[in-house]
Input
Amino acid sequence: MKAGIVSVGTELLMGEVLDTNASYLASQLPLLGLDLQSIMVLPDNIESLAEAFGQAWRRFDVVLATGGLGPTQDDLTREATARVLGEEMSVSPELERDLRAMFAAMGREMPLSNIKQATLIPSARSIPNPRGTAPGWWVERDGRIMVAMPGPPAEMQRMWEAEVMPRLRAAVRREAVGVRTLKCLGSEGEVGEKAGPVFAMGNPALGIYAKPDGIHLRLIARAADDAGAAALLAAAESRLRECLGHQVWGTDADTLEGRAGALLAARQLTLATMESCTGGLLSAIITDVPGSSAYFKGGFISYTSEMKVSLGVDARLIASHGVVSAQVAEAMAIAARRRLGADIGLAVTGVAGPDPLEGKPPGLAYIGIAAPDGTRAVEGRYPPRRVDVKRLVVTHALHLLIQTVQAAPGGM
Amino acid sequence: MKAGIVSVGTELLMGEVLDTNASYLASQLPLLGLDLQSIMVLPDNIESLAEAFGQAWRRFDVVLATGGLGPTQDDLTREATARVLGEEMSVSPELERDLRAMFAAMGREMPLSNIKQATLIPSARSIPNPRGTAPGWWVERDGRIMVAMPGPPAEMQRMWEAEVMPRLRAAVRREAVGVRTLKCLGSEGEVGEKAGPVFAMGNPALGIYAKPDGIHLRLIARAADDAGAAALLAAAESRLRECLGHQVWGTDADTLEGRAGALLAARQLTLATMESCTGGLLSAIITDVPGSSAYFKGGFISYTSEMKVSLGVDARLIASHGVVSAQVAEAMAIAARRRLGADIGLAVTGVAGPDPLEGKPPGLAYIGIAAPDGTRAVEGRYPPRRVDVKRLVVTHALHLLIQTVQAAPGGM
Output
């Protein structure tokens, strides 16, 4: 079934307020099996709104509108909907009573203009909004559905989750849809090849996406009911895990830093860092995880060779291989581990750019990792934009950390 | 004059990729005096695109499209534009030559499908894209303008700033508009009060915005020509600088870290950091500035008390005041400065959350700064969301750094 989103509000067209509602809803619709055909962002203007709502109503099975439900003259979503359907708005006595009670509870008199928040048209039912004064509208006619929700994201999301999503699921589903994402280390080509047998399954459908934190494999299963969809997902997931083994580092909302932290905590290992080109970003991301102080012992931002040497990197290594080298990355990892008495030392050295360093090009970096069972370094080459290089090196370093901890013997 | 934006790409409707291009362009249009009437987000479907482009072309004076300029069959912005205008696409020999040269420079053969990136229609001129293979289209006919730009934000913004914005300015303007933003330290109320005399000027119009990096004062001047607008801006800016003095830390695209770096470099001062609750984020942001290795000597992420003490913080200070205290922040700043032989030491200690620490609430932090002429610490209290706390503390620390360096005697 086809769906369209209309975001209402002049402020969304001024570039001062970002329309997060549309992207939130866009990410929700695949879970209902709805196929989003367009997003429109429109000003608080009755002609524009009526035309857009009319178009969307004729074209799509489900129309989701956000915004324009406030009490002022500028709030025109109800008026535009009534015009498109050729229906008359009238005040609902129950809604008026609820609204007055809400104002009374806040110890305030209800302003006259708010009465429009208690109106309905014959095809509309009201949707409760515990977080604000504007109830939504659920409009159903001629086999089509239009839903109007308030603009403030907290009110909209609450209404979507508690009211609209369940009603829509009941109204639109002919089948159950289940979604599961596995996140992997490796290149898109390699992961795609290994996932071949699951591609062939067809249901669940498998999508493969290269993302900043690795390769995502998204499974979408369709079945007669939720249990059937869950069983299809479980079978496909276990097959993918067989094919990919330790390359799977997480699922769904997992982050690299969260997953690395969970692995370190589970194995009671501690971590120390030494960073050059990433300038602290690696540690900053590691410590974004609540509770990271349980395993993160600290770090050094050794922006000069002098500081590296003072922390224990052999000056002769720097002299013979250059500061951006696998040898120095390993020595930095060893030094971080030793200085802070950690189980694992993780280090990065590279050329963030824009200028070359020691004749080495921007985007070249080495990541070193020192663990009880050995030390190694990997080389990375990244597109040479300073901010991107830092982020990509950090991602690569977290991949290496996860691999190392996953592969560690149990007693490490 | 009226404008519309069309964002092209099925991925924008899947909730996987956020459409940042539309909001970026929306924020730019007021500077040209253009009135944005709608944003449409559409899938890679020739029928949908042709219909939307046709509607926008009939309704608006200026249509800005992003996305759909790639080499694959899914990239249909050129095709849809040609259909709406009833014009024939043909390969431009110069564009083909440039494209082949670009691939040759990357040491690659040009895939056959890329030839469509060298096409034009009679009403279109090509817009160069130094960051990618897809040139844009500037289409002008019947007094209307349509611009097609590539989807990747870095390519789009470069093309907008260097090519599209200046051409549009020349094409649409009836009056000259000049814009200047001053960025200030302080609270919105205080800055607004001091800026009072400039509010009264009327032209330039003064807007005041509380932003993550401080208070922004945005001046918009209107005049018959550029020289007139520039003169109005210059007069208002110099008046604002009189009113606000050192509270003005930067202008327009300046960032806190860039401004702090420029001040340090100009005064030939070096910097070292020691971070606890920010976990490396302060240093990561300081080193986002190209050339920061000239003044940044390095940093310590002292996530444990043990590490703080090993670096020179007196254990008795921690015992008597707690690790989250003004005294420890000062001691950390002094230790960072001394350990790395820097002119200035900057340190942060605080409770990132979600749990309290030493009975102190999440969101409490102290920032210490040690300079040749003395050491001090400031307290900050921030809304207790871990990721927000880290970012806000860093902003506050950079403010303090700028204040300290600005106020330093010339010979510091």
